[in-house]
Amino acid sequence: MTSNRKVDQEVGSRLREKRLINRISVNEFAAKLGVSPEQLDRFERGDERIPAVELRDACILLDTNIMFFFDSLVGHERASAQRVR
Fold first, then answer.
1. 4-84 CATH, one of 3.40.50.970, 1.10.260.40, 3.40.50.10710, 2.40.50.730
2. 32-51 per-position pLDDT tens digit
3. CA distance to 3, 26, 72, per residue, from 35 (Å)
């Protein structure tokens, strides 16, 4: 099973990836989410877990499905579960 830290890092990495694809600055995106740029940076590095409300708002702002943040983890979890069996 994937550790909580790895999940936080993957979600944060995907958040940053999608923000950059949409060409939104840290300051602009943080303001739209209602968090400080420093806190957004901690989310994107996986140092701090992004709360569900902010993740939902990020999905709306970035016009993406929430599974975008978890797709790579779901595939990894399935492969790990199959190896255990």
1. 1.10.260.40
2. 999 999 999 999 999 999 99
3. 25, 10, 26
